[in-house]
Specification:
Length: 122
Amino acid sequence: MDPVELDALAAQLDTILELDRDLATEVVVTLAEHHDRRVIAPLLDLLASGRANELMVRAAGWLADPGLHRALERLAASRIGGDRGGGRRHAIWNFDERNPDDPISLDRAFALYRTANLAGWG
C-alpha cells in the first residue's frame, strides 16, 4: 500500500467512532499493519467506547505501544470474569485463567505472530 492510500485511510480517523464497524476495522487494522502511529489515539477512543472488535484489539497488540496498555487492561478487566461480556474475552488474552503465568497456556500462534512482527520492526 502506498503512502497516498495510507493517507486516505488516516483521513478517516477523525470520524472513526462514526464509521460502520467493517470500515473502522479496515482502517485500524491496515494502519496498524503498516505501523502507522496515527491510529493510536483513535484506537484508544474505540477501546474506551466499547466498539473495538477482536481484530482491533489484535491491531493494538501489533502496535505494542505503551500508550495502549491501560486501555487494553481496562478492556481485559471488563471481559475476563467480569459481569460485562459474560466472561467472554478476546483471543489476545487466550490463556488458562487457572494458571495465567504458565507460558504453555498462552495463545502460541498469536504470540509467535506478534513476536515475528515485532522482530521485523527494527
